[in-house]
């Protein structure tokens, strides 16, 4: 909201020399945001001149120029010769002369310069050149602006070019501040100076409901609220629309961000800015009968002032006459009754409309306006009468009209909000000691009617503050008026025993470990298409229960994911398309696994402001599908880049297995891998992940068809685990391993077994047979080829032995190793490779 300081001074006392910085500081102290100071950016000398004579001189380019002799007053050099290209003035006209040394907006400095065979000693200015509007068809003739000043008069002060405005950001909940009235009240709050309410003017002598035909017919209210809260109609007869807008009004409108559109429209805009109540004027001679306010009928259309024909919705609130719609209530008027150059009789509408109804209409038609911006934030329902009267007074004074003898006012009961505020509530909530007397004073300053009670206060909010609804909003007012800088910056002390839960700590630990091993965390959308949801969401690739979104953002992805892998694959595709070919990524997020035959998302009609019962909470939880947290990883390209003396290392199944082991170590569980089959994975290169005998996920290489369809080249390996289940199986405590001070003994063993024998089962046999002395076992080689019989393979394990109380001998380590070999021999016929 832009506020010209000259306008602000009409409603509050401002000391001489008050700068824009001072005004900004005051308004910021009560919760507004500083934007910028706005002025006309002109410097003198700019004076009133009079055209003594001129000669028309045609040029070779076909242009006509006038070589003018302009009297600018003895103090400014008397008569000066000035070249002017405009043709809209005559000898004797008083104009605005910008003399050498002046600077116009741009900046555009003025200097004496030789042109068209003459030395032009200045310039005759148009409204656009001075920043007073867009009119550049000719120069300013002061007589057309209703002015007849003496030659040599300072034109900067005459035209209001010395005024300046402050622009502040008004938050959506404080719509009352989108007016001079509202911001002047806030400035008075901040500085303690007296405030004069511009809405308190003599009341009209037209009785409510007399004279003008007006009907409110709102059969389809929004949210149960009628669309109209107040509607005032006044008339002005015999106006002269050709009269000029006074310079003081023109300059204020320009500083406030509005261009001059003619006197009658300028007056309605001026009053809207002054009082915050949008005003609309109708050409009375174009109206057919009286006015009816109603909702639109099916198929109705309206051509608005911007020239667009709009198909109306049955929720649109309309202003109509006997001919049909003549305006979108609270948004924009229609063309058929607009004020024009031939308007002589005016019907003035000042109303208060329901904020939700106006907001919906403005958004539906993509038609934001200065009026809708105010109505949707809330307009004082009691200011409409004063606003209509102000327009009447200005049209009588400036347009030569006569106040009409007819008018109508329909007023509806408005909600009066009375709020109980305990005496100590503000101090306890904010942490500042507010004296009861000061609290009452602040509440009265913002317009509340306050009554002391034994426990505190009863405050009745003013009609212009629809945002004051409860004791918390009252405390906010007390805090901002008293000074937000007084609120202490003290961090609250957390109660003992709080912090991350065991599950939260475990998830963070797992994410940190994956990131530390070189993977990059990504967050993907939980919405997927049906095909990939089925492929990755079930082991068999057969359709499984899935949640379909009723209002999907993307109709190609209307399902909630059953797996994290589709999102990781899409991320890999996006990165590969942008030139990133080496990928190691992971995600930790929720998947959605509904049970077959169960209906989810049932509607509940729960009472407001009351805690649901245990039974209602159980129903709510039952209406939500299971949403376990999963961890997913994906590798593509190289795990290590090519370096001098070292070839690139391609990511493969071992990379995914390493990530799985890292998750297990971080969670405190041992994850076993057994061979399995899965529709989305390559046959023979897929493994199930087992913890304590329970399957918790899978690891493997994407099937080539799946990779190709996603435009991923090379081998792509993935793994996915039910993280919630892994953490649950880890138990409530992760015990750190004991660090022995004794040296470890290391040995290798190569066992020949059948090619179909899982390596994990052979490893398990070694661990079982070797006993407590075996500290770790790691598969280091899987050989199949020359030297082995058909259908056999050689598995080489690196074994580490350690005792807690002594240094092991080689014989002890060998004995433990051979005990493990014996168990493997019994179970799988394994023997040591020669």
What does this structure look like?
The protein is of the alpha+beta class and 834 residues long. It folds into six domains: 2-40 and 164-191, Phenylalanyl-tRNA Synthetase, Chain B, domain 1 (2-Layer Sandwich), CATH 3.30.56.10; 46-158, Beta Barrel (OB fold (Dihydrolipoamide Acetyltransferase, E2P)); 214-411, 3-Layer(bba) Sandwich (Phenylalanyl-tRNA Synthetase, Chain B, domain 3), CATH 3.50.40; 421-486, 2-Layer Sandwich (Phenylalanyl-tRNA Synthetase, Chain B, domain 1); 502-603 and 613-729, Bira Bifunctional Protein, Domain 2 (BirA Bifunctional Protein, domain 2); 745-832, Ferrodoxin-fold anticodon-binding domain (Alpha-Beta Plaits, 2-Layer Sandwich), CATH 3.30.70.380. It is built from 22 helices and 41 strands. α2 crosses α5, α7 (263-275) packs antiparallel against α10 and α21 crosses α22 (810-828). The longest helix has 19 residues, at 810-828. The protein is elongated and about 125 Å long. The mean pLDDT is 89.
